[in-house]
Write a structure and sequence with these properties.
Lipocalin; globular
Amino acid sequence: MIGQKGLIAVVFILFVLLGFSVTLYAPTVAAAADKPQPAGKIDEQLLTGHWVRPDGGYILELTEIKKDGNLKAAYFNPRPINVAQAELRRKDGTLTIFIELRDVNYPGSKYNLQYDPKTDKLKGTYFQAVYGETYDVEFVRAE
């Protein structure tokens, strides 16, 4: 079993690595954002990367966005939380993301998010299954 100091070291290393990978990813995002997009058409690949919820530091990592809408997602609070389902859909030109969490203290909590290209944010709702309450949330791109 890992002690408290060991856990703190692991969390620190995780954030250092995440920060490093975001730094490596940032030029790619900037280059992709500079490419002109057809009206109403946003490149789904712009959503890949690390997103942070400012009100709690929760991290959502989106990778491997596929044409069929499936995507690979990871969620951290600060430890990894199991993502049971992750989907990307396009509805009326808007990119929407659905994430379902299934883990200890996350028995079916759900995110329903929309990408706002003007602010480069993911905005929507979070259903907290333990309390049965829904909250307005947003994620900003990690720097």
